[in-house]
């Protein structure tokens, strides 16, 4: 509603009333019958009247036109924050918004906010529409904190002034507010307000009805973890155009710990998102975090509040709804033990609450002291401290202060040296936006010999001397690879680095300056090299035509356009072909008939539980498609992957008979689904096998076509620990260098016999086929895909066979890129693991199983 504003009213000038000199006298009938003489109007005056009337009409018309067309429009603005009230004592009744106490105090607070704060500032009261209380919590010294929301309706041209005035309501911190007029003053019945914050509400939320809903009031309890979830989760997607909030409280002197184990929202944060606040009101000044998209394996979404309240909000727009989230909350003591102290002998120190994100509003100080004469070296294995994008250099918000302030993201093994035997380390976080924090270790070193027996990198890291000039960036800053003279097995890059010779022409720019990818029979600059070796003009890539003849110029386009079908274009159910790379289940409808997004109940973890086990052990429920195949006599033998409630994919070599065992017979097998620890099979779902279909062209010499299907004797119920992985279409491209996950209970080292008790996970990278073939003595067929870490140490091993190589695609969904097949030993340098390339078998799997 457009309300009239005092002081801005416009009174159009009206012609003077009553007698005016020069008017003609007229005689009007009088009650006593006497005739009054009428005066005649002179001509000049008549002209003047007409002119004046025209001017008035023009003026009024002008004003109306200005009013409706040019006058600045009004903007609805929401502000929010809290008031600290010292004149009342907190009681449980103030948590229940139906209680009389709550209602009375809420009315008083809203009134006094207007009269004592906005009205004192003449400006603000003029634009104020309404204020309401969102909740109360106990303040320090028994007082009460009232969380409020105020609505303003401001002319666009006054917006910045009003915003400035509202933002200033907090300047100087809470206590400085006491001296402001209307605050800290006690009149007869009024509240004593000793502190106040005020900040804008996210404009997207402000457009919604921000009313608190009763069933969303949660209270954390001692030694207990409770949960809440987005509407419909996990059975259905969340609704469109939603705003929901959950207020969480804890006992005094406690913080709230919040952990999202599932988060699967639209990936564009402008459309759907959650926000967590360090308050009961949605003020931007106290946002702890904003999240959208999907939580990837290994990502920790654990947050701590600074006090005993927290607010979680969910916003969704009109389009595209996703499964949503589930979160666990509990209370933890307010005092965090990792916050500061005296450190001497050497050891570790972490940000408060680590591995949770650190809480807002905290300051910790550590004093490090090592023996006299020695210096201090601090190495961070994790470093992620929130810094505003535009000002990462001066770290104005959150920082760790060593010699100077540091913030932002640092790679693992970042080292700082301090030239003294004493150091004070300070960690500071402000009232909003938190990071994952840091985990550091410190040690004393001899200044004359900082890396005894090792090579000292420019960044002060010490690495083994035989890692110098080996072609790998072991220091992290390349300093171990500079100034090297290359040996026979290496090529010399133009920039001076030496790289393994077999890395040349593998499609990856290993030198950094492309030397290793030059002269590889590729097309000249400004041409596109087709997969079939043809050269086409670069402009022809992604133009909708199959210029290469094999479709490769249309297979990796960012946007989907309908193209002529080829072996590498994605085919929709309606037989249309589209050009986009890997469009299936990427969260965007690319096919006109929507078939690319129709069958996507796969590849995400629907309900994973929250327990985290250290090292490389997986979390429970982290890989719900992972299966353990036991035989009745040997226990765990192979892995497999769930692809539907009836079918598993495994390796053909797992189901081949030998002299001793009849592995090809279904009754030999026991299938454990949802298993985490081998000794806890009773917790898993046990199934028998009805049918085994080994690939008809499996070759036991070359391991070509090493894939098999197993049908369960009865459907398994899909649940938090049992869930299918997505199968990639034949055109799906897992690019060289992509990081993928391998999982299994296989041997932890080549030379030991026993299998791993807890499901293991490891991250490896896809390796170029030509490179892999060279490394593996030409044993790689087009139906195999290699992955590993060429420096060795990370790999699949015996017992992992048949299990998944899982690849997180665009929107975080997991696809079965490979099946663990073979290798030369385990974890050897330059001997990657070999996997069955699942894209080659997509149609066969569909034919055999209907999946
Ligand atoms: C095996 O024996 C096996 N390093 C599986 C994978 C690898 C090696 C051996 C890969 O089942």
UniProtKB/TrEMBL annotation:
<dbReference type="InterPro" id="IPR001254">
    <property type="entry name" value="Trypsin_dom"/>
</dbReference>
<feature type="transmembrane region" description="Helical">
    <location>
        <begin position="44"/>
        <end position="68"/>
    </location>
</feature>
<dbReference type="InterPro" id="IPR009003">
    <property type="entry name" value="Peptidase_S1_PA"/>
</dbReference>
<dbReference type="InterPro" id="IPR000082">
    <property type="entry name" value="SEA_dom"/>
</dbReference>
<keyword id="KW-0720">Serine protease</keyword>
<keyword id="KW-0325">Glycoprotein</keyword>
<dbReference type="InterPro" id="IPR036055">
    <property type="entry name" value="LDL_receptor-like_sf"/>
</dbReference>
<feature type="disulfide bond">
    <location>
        <begin position="530"/>
        <end position="548"/>
    </location>
</feature>
<feature type="domain" description="CUB">
    <location>
        <begin position="213"/>
        <end position="332"/>
    </location>
</feature>
<keyword id="KW-0677">Repeat</keyword>
<dbReference type="Pfam" id="PF01390">
    <property type="entry name" value="SEA"/>
</dbReference>
<dbReference type="GO" id="GO:0006897">
    <property type="term" value="P:endocytosis"/>
</dbReference>
<dbReference type="InterPro" id="IPR002172">
    <property type="entry name" value="LDrepeatLR_classA_rpt"/>
</dbReference>
<feature type="disulfide bond">
    <location>
        <begin position="486"/>
        <end position="498"/>
    </location>
</feature>
<dbReference type="InterPro" id="IPR043504">
    <property type="entry name" value="Peptidase_S1_PA_chymotrypsin"/>
</dbReference>
<keyword id="KW-0735">Signal-anchor</keyword>
<keyword id="KW-0106">Calcium</keyword>
<keyword id="KW-0378">Hydrolase</keyword>
<feature type="disulfide bond">
    <location>
        <begin position="505"/>
        <end position="520"/>
    </location>
</feature>
<feature type="domain" description="Peptidase S1">
    <location>
        <begin position="612"/>
        <end position="850"/>
    </location>
</feature>
<dbReference type="InterPro" id="IPR023415">
    <property type="entry name" value="LDLR_class-A_CS"/>
</dbReference>
<dbReference type="GO" id="GO:0004252">
    <property type="term" value="F:serine-type endopeptidase activity"/>
</dbReference>
<feature type="disulfide bond">
    <location>
        <begin position="565"/>
        <end position="577"/>
    </location>
</feature>
<keyword id="KW-0254">Endocytosis</keyword>
<dbReference type="InterPro" id="IPR035914">
    <property type="entry name" value="Sperma_CUB_dom_sf"/>
</dbReference>
<protein>
    <submittedName>
        <fullName>Suppressor of tumorigenicity 14 protein-like protein</fullName>
    </submittedName>
</protein>
<comment type="similarity">
    <text>Belongs to the LDLR family.</text>
</comment>
<keyword id="KW-1015">Disulfide bond</keyword>
<feature type="disulfide bond">
    <location>
        <begin position="523"/>
        <end position="535"/>
    </location>
</feature>
<feature type="domain" description="CUB">
    <location>
        <begin position="339"/>
        <end position="445"/>
    </location>
</feature>
<keyword id="KW-0245">EGF-like domain</keyword>
<dbReference type="Pfam" id="PF00089">
    <property type="entry name" value="Trypsin"/>
</dbReference>
<feature type="region of interest" description="Disordered">
    <location>
        <begin position="1"/>
        <end position="21"/>
    </location>
</feature>
<dbReference type="GO" id="GO:0016020">
    <property type="term" value="C:membrane"/>
</dbReference>
<keyword id="KW-0645">Protease</keyword>
<dbReference type="InterPro" id="IPR036364">
    <property type="entry name" value="SEA_dom_sf"/>
</dbReference>
<keyword id="KW-0472">Membrane</keyword>
<feature type="disulfide bond">
    <location>
        <begin position="585"/>
        <end position="600"/>
    </location>
</feature>
<dbReference type="Pfam" id="PF00057">
    <property type="entry name" value="Ldl_recept_a"/>
</dbReference>
<keyword id="KW-0675">Receptor</keyword>
<keyword id="KW-1133">Transmembrane helix</keyword>
<feature type="disulfide bond">
    <location>
        <begin position="457"/>
        <end position="475"/>
    </location>
</feature>
């Amino acid at each position: 509603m457009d309300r009239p504003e005092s002081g801005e009213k416009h009174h159009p000038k009206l012609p003077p009333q009553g007698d005016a000199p020069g008017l003609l006298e007229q005689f009007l009938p009088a009650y006593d019958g006497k005739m009054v003489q009428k005066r005649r109007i002179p001509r000049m005056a008549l002209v003047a009247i007409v002119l004046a009337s025209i001017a008035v009409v023009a003026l009024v018309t002008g004003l109306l036109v200005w009013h409706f067309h040019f006058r600045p429009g009004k903007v609805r603005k929401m502000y929010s924050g809290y008031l600290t009230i010292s004149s009342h004592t907190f009681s449980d009744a103030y948590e229940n918004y139906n209680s009389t106490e709550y209602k009375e105090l809420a009315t008083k607070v809203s009134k006094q906010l207007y009269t004592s704060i906005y009205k004192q500032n003449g400006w603000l009261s003029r634009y104020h529409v309404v204020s309401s209380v969102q909740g109360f919590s106990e303040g320090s010294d028994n007082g009460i904190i009232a969380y409020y929301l105020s609505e303003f309706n401001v002319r666009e041209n006054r917006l910045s002034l009003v915003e400035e005035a509202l933002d200033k309501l907090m300047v100087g911190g809470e206590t400085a507010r006491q001296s402001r007029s209307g605050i800290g003053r006690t009149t007869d019945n009024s509240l004593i307000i000793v502190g106040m914050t005020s900040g804008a509400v996210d404009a997207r939320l402000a457009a919604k009805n921000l009313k608190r809903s009763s069933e969303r009031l949660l209270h954390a309890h001692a030694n207990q973890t409770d949960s809440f979830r987005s509407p419909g989760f996990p059975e259905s997607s969340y609704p469109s155009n939603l705003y929901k909030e959950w207020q969480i409280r804890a006992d005094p002197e406690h913080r709230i710990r919040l952990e999202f184990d599932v988060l699967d929202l639209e990936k564009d944060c402008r459309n759907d998102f959650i926000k967590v606040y360090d308050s009961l009101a949605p003020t931007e000044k106290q946002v702890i975090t904003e999240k959208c998209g999907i939580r990837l394996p290994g990502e920790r979404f654990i947050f701590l509040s600074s006090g005993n309240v927290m607010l979680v909000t969910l916003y969704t727009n009109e389009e595209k709804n996703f499964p949503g989230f589930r979160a666990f909350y509990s209370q933890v003591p307010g005092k965090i033990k990792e916050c500061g102290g005296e450190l001497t002998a050497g050891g570790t120190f972490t940000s408060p609450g680590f591995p949770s994100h650190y809480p807002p509003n905290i300051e910790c100080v550590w004093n490090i002291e090592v023996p006299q004469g020695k210096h201090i070296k601090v190495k961070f294995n994790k470093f992620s401290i929130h810094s505003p994008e535009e000002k990462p250099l001066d770290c104005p918000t959150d920082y760790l202060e060593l010699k100077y302030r540091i913030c932002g993201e640092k790679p693992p093994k970042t080292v700082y040296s301090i030239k003294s035997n004493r150091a004070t380390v300070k960690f500071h976080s402000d009232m909003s936006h938190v990071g994952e924090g840091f985990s550091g270790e410190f040690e004393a070193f001899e200044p004359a010999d900082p890396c005894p027996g090792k090579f000292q990198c420019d960044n002060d890291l010490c690495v083994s001397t035989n890692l110098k000039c080996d072609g790998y960036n072991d220091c992290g800053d390349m300093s171990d690879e500079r100034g090297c003279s290359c040996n026979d097995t290496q090529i010399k890059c133009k920039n001076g680095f030496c790289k393994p010779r077999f890395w040349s022409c593998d499609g990856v720019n290993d030198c950094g300056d492309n030397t290793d990818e030059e002269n590889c029979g590729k097309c000249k600059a400004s041409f596109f090299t087709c997969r079939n070796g043809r050269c086409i003009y670069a402009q022809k890539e992604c133009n909708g035509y199959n210029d290469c003849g094999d479709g490769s110029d249309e297979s990796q386009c960012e946007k989907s356009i309908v193209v002529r079908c080829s072996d590498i274009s994605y085919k929709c159910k309606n037989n249309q072909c589209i050009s986009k790379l890997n469009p299936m289940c990427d969260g965007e409808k690319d096919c006109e008939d929507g078939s690319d997004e129709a069958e996507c109940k796969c590849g995400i973890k629907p309900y994973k539980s929250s327990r985290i086990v250290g090292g490389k052990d997986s979390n429970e429920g982290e890989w719900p498609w992972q299966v353990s195949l036991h035989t009745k006599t040997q226990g765990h033998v192979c892995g497999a992957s769930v692809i539907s409630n009836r079918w598993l994919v495994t390796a053909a070599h797992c189901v081949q008979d030998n002299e001793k065992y009849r592995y090809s017979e279904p009754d030999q097998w026991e299938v454990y689904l949802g298993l985490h620890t081998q000794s806890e099979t009773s917790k898993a779902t046990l199934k028998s096998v009805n049918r085994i279909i080994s690939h008809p062209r499996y070759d036991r010499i070359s391991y070509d076509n090493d894939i098999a299907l197993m049908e369960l004797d009865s459907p398994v119920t899909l649940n938090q620990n049992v869930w299918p992985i997505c199968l990639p279409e034949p055109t799906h491209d897992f690019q060289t260098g992509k990081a993928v996950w391998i999982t299994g209970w296989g041997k932890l080292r080549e030379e030991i016999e026993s299998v791993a008790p807890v499901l293991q996970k490891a991250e490896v990278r896809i390796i170029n086929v030509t490179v892999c073939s060279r490394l593996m003595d030409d044993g790689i067929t087009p139906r195999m895909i290699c992955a590993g870490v060429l420096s060795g140490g990370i790999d699949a091993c015996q017992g992992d066979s048949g299990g998944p190589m899982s690849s997180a695609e665009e929107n975080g969904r997991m696809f079965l890129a490979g099946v663990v097949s073979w290798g030369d030993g385990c974890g050897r340098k330059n001997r990657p693991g070999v996997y069955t390339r699942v894209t080659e078998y997509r149609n066969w799997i569909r034919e055999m199983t209907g999946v």
